[in-house]
Design a protein that fits this description.
CATH architecture of the largest domain: Up-down Bundle
Order of helices and strands: HHHEEHHHHHHHH
CATH class of the largest domain: Mainly Alpha
Strand content: under 5%
CATH topology of the largest domain: Four Helix Bundle (Hemerythrin (Met), subunit A)
Structural class: mainly alpha
Number of strands: 2
Number of domains: 2
CATH superfamily of the largest domain: GntR ligand-binding domain-like
Distance between the termini: 51 Å
Largest sheet: 2 strands, antiparallel
Radius of gyration: 21 Å
């Protein structure tokens, strides 16, 4: 899609609209660094102040994130995800687990009904990686593997709204999983993950929901026991 010269009277609004379109379309992907200011000025045919004003507006909205001495990065792909990010980063572990319970129980059942062969392969690979990470001492690797498994299950629902909502919880999920991993020295002891993968493979929504209940309840007990 790219940028085009701005010709309207409301210069900043037009720039903001173009930037939002680039972010939502994926041309500026989540986590990517946007072009430097001189390049944006040249492409849009506007002054530096207009570009700066538009960038600041999207920073305040939570879509862009400035990094001192490095540039500006895409932090969220839409306003909803940005709002979830702002709230989730201040949420306690039990609050995050309550939201996960609401989302993941039904998502597990839906994934069991809608999963494709590609989804199943991704879930199984993520489950294998998670299991392998349980035996290592690298907690960051475990957190990454655990999140990859749950994201694979959510993706298997094929519901873009749910996928976007869940992605907005990424920071809170990372923090919560890390906290649980710190409390649980035997990471393999939390049941339900392999069972969930098996239930989805068997297209069994009831078993998938029960497996999600199992690991979420175990996580809640760990967090409550630490209070």
């Amino acid at each position: 899609m790219g940028l085009s010269a701005v010709r309207t009277g409301r210069v900043c609004d037009e720039i903001v609209t173009q930037f939002e379109q680039l972010i939502e379309s994926g041309e500026w992907p989540l986590g990517s660094k946007i072009p430097p200011e001189p390049e944006l000025v040249a492409a849009l045919g506007v002054g530096r102040n207009s570009v700066r004003e538009a960038v600041r507006a999207l920073e305040h909205a939570g879509l862009l994130e400035p990094r001192r001495g490095d540039g500006t990065y895409v932090r969220a792909t839409n306003g909803l995800r940005a709002a979830i990010l702002r709230r989730a980063r201040r949420s306690a572990a039990l609050d995050v687990l309550a939201v996960r319970t609401s989302l993941e129980r039904d998502a597990a059942a839906v994934a069991a009904l809608r999963r494709t062969d590609a989804d199943l392969a991704a879930i199984q690979a993520a489950a294998d990686a998670r299991r392998a990470s349980c035996d290592g001492g690298d907690r960051a690797a475990f957190v990454s593997a655990d999140l990859a498994f749950h994201f694979a299950v959510i993706a298997a629902t094929g519901n873009p709204v749910l996928i976007d909502l869940y992605a907005g919880l990424t920071e809170a999920l990372q923090r919560t999983v890390a906290e649980i991993a710190e409390l649980d020295h035997d990471r393999a002891a939390i049941p339900g993950h392999d069972e969930l993968a098996a239930a989805i493979a068997a297209s069994d929504p009831a078993a998938a929901r029960a497996a999600a209940d199992s690991y979420l309840a175990a996580a809640r007990r760990l967090v409550e026991g630490s209070r």
